[in-house]
Design a protein that fits this description.
Layout (H helix, E strand, L loop, with lengths): L3 H13 L3 H13 L6 H14 L2 H13 L6 H13 L3 H9 L6 H9 L7 H13 L6 H13 L3 H9 L7 H14 L2 H14 L5 H12 L16
Helix pairs in contact: 1-2, 1-3, 2-3, 3-4, 3-5, 5-6, 5-7, 7-8, 7-9, 8-9, 9-10, 9-11, 10-11, 11-12, 11-13, 12-13
């Protein structure tokens, strides 16, 4: 089997089935057969490494990619940034990001999203703010990454300020993410505001009602205040 596209397909199937060790094994097999991997092969390999969450393997794969010159491919570089962020090696992820000759929207997303632990919130803020310095207009997914980061780390007021300052209507997924953070951190007042915004966006969606009831119940409040005007949601 000397067609690299067939190997790519096999690796992809293994990754989708969460059999990433098998995917890595197939990669080793194709190398032993003398086949040359292409960009798709290496994207599959990085995806497999991300599932396995092995820093040692991530470093080995990165070395191979750099040695073969595939790090010049932006999609592969983005995948490596995401891989090292997931494995907890934020320093390497940031070095890869800073070394990019060109960045696309995904580059910024994976870098912002990688700043998850509490002590890295400031770095996440810095990356987000530097987008403007590079002439990049944040898209909804960038705002969503920042809101998710702030929400996870308990910076709910700052996250809500971003939502209020959005140049367009927030997405349902963004608001549900922030509402979930309100549940985790027990912020009933902000949860009521976010639930009201969700109800305005999608009146038929029952999830905000359920989530808000759970937030209130966890706080020992069984009477739910449901905002009915924009003023009450500010």
């Amino acid at each position: 089997m000397e067609d690299i596209s067939l190997w790519n397909a096999i690796m992809s199937v293994q990754i989708q089935a969460k059999n990433s060790e098998n995917a890595v094994g197939f990669f080793n097999s194709l190398l032993q057969m003398g086949l040359e991997p292409d960009n798709v092969t290496l994207l599959n390999l990085v995806s497999a490494c991300a599932q396995l969450n092995s820093l040692t393997l991530a470093n080995s794969v990165m070395s191979y990619i750099i040695r073969k010159g595939f790090d010049k491919d932006l999609a592969i570089s983005n995948a490596l940034i995401d891989l090292h962020s997931r494995c907890g090696n934020i320093c390497i992820a940031r070095k890869l990001f800073d070394g990019l000759v060109k960045r696309d929207a995904l580059s910024w997303s994976v870098m912002i999203n990688g700043q998850q632990p509490f002590w890295l919130v400031e770095q996440g803020r810095a990356v987000f703010k530097s987008m403007a310095e590079h002439g990049i207009t944040p898209q909804m997914k960038h705002y969503a990454c920042m809101v998710d980061l702030l929400g996870r780390t308990g910076n709910l007021t700052e996250a809500y300020d971003i939502v209020r300052g959005l140049p367009c209507k927030p997405s349902t997924s963004l608001l549900e993410s922030l509402l979930g953070a309100c549940r985790i951190h027990g912020n009933v007042e902000l949860g009521e505001k976010i639930a009201g915004l969700l109800s305005e966006l999608d009146p038929e969606n029952s999830r905000p009602h359920v989530m808000l009831h759970n937030i209130c119940a966890a706080a020992g409040r069984w009477t739910v205040f449901w905002p009915t005007s924009s003023a009450e949601m500010r």
